[in-house]
Structure formats: structure tokens, C-alpha cells
Amino acid sequence: MTAQLPQLLADLFALNAHTAIVTGATGGLGLTMTLALAEAGANVISIEMPDDPASPNLQEQVDESGRYFERHECDVKDSTQLRSVFASIWKQADELKDSRPLPNILISCAGINRRGPAEQLTDEEIDETFAVNQKATFVCGQELAAGLLQRQLPGKIISVASVTGFISATTISAYAATKGAVLQTTRAFSSEWASKGIQVNALCPGYFWTEMTRQYQEEPQYKGFNEYVLSRCPTGRWGVPDDLRGAVIFLASRASDYMTGQSLVVDGGLLGQ
């Protein structure tokens, strides 16, 4: 039995015979998580902004892993367009089901942040933030689950939230509100679909080094915030995208089959302070 243990563990986390739909796959965190899924064996269907300049890099790296890659262009804040894309994905998946696995994993990672004092945020900034971070996440979850339920298949839905769904921070009120909503959406979806074999969980990063947060670390006016992050995290550093690789594979694989409606926090210990 001992000699077989490494293979048994590998099987537990393997994603061969799986296909993942990902939004935000070309971004800093999204790219790393998507490639982790591909390296673990999953095919990738990427929902991207039209003419995303980072798309060729994503496809090249997925191709290098030997997995199937498919791209669909869509502005996710347009829910009508987003539902149409999912209809196309399911139609094509059914046509190719004899040659590749049907989609059964969703990573909702697309997100934006509009910074500013809460009283100064415009309707446009509020609406855009809620449309991308909250409504698109909700719609993507609906569409994957509807397809799985119709075909009586199990699946995994992973929505990227944030520690700002738990704690307050200045100048990101709309962003924090949407991430709190993602946490509750995760619980609500789980309550409805867990009995059908669909696990729904949220992945909650802390403060990570990405293009979205670069100004906090490099611009002089944010020196105080950078010092706050470093002092608040017991690890004494910002997270890097690779810190999420294990977490996303866990949530997407059989290893998490009895975990649903939960929020997996990866924050260097920040919330524990």
C-alpha cells in the first residue's frame, strides 16, 4: 500500500478528463491558476475581452502543456452576450463530446477595481464594478450549473473573491461590496446544487502582487499602505500568483469533493491577525 500512495495522491488531484471554463484567464492571478489547471490535466476554455493582447501568450502556454485550448470573446459585463457565449460553448461541447470532456469546472476570475472615496464614486464606476465582479460571476455560475444539471453531470464552481469581502479598506468600497456578494452567492448556489454533485466554493486571495496592485507597492503616495500590508501579514510579504496554484487545483479536483459553500482564504495569515 505504501508504494502505491504517491500515485493515489496524484489521482486525487489530477484533472485529466476535465474541461475548465475560465474568465479572467489572461490576468495575473487568472493566468497562473489557468496554467495550473492545464498542467494538472484540464482542457481550457477561456472567455476573454475582444482582442485581448495577452491571449496569444495564454494559448501558447496551454498548448505547451498538451491540453486543448478554446477561446471565446466576450465583455463579461454584458450578461446577454455572456449567456450567448455559454450557449455556444455547450453547443460545441456536445458536438465534440466524443473527442474531449464536457466542461465541468468554472473559474470566475474576471474582476476590476475602481478606486476612490466612497462618496465620490460615479454611477458608471459603481455599475461597471458590480457588473464585472458580481453579476458576471453570478451569471457564469448559473450557466455552468444549468448545463451540468441538464446533462446530469457533477462539477466544480470556483469564484474568486477577496479578503476585502471580510474586512474593510478605504477607497475600494464598490470592489469590497462585490466581493462580499460573491461570498454570499457561493453559499446560496451551494445550498441549491450540492445535492446534485456540484460543489461551489470561493477562493479568497489576500494582497497579491499583480498589475492591479502594483501602484500600492511602487508609488510613493501608497507607501503607508504597503507598510500596512507587510506589517499585517505574519509572512511579511505580499502574495505572488504561484501561491494560488495548489489552492485552485484542490478546489477543482476530487480532493475537495466534500467541501462546498466555503471560502478558502489564501492571505499569508492576514485575517488571522
UniProtKB/TrEMBL annotation:
Record's protein name: Uncharacterized protein
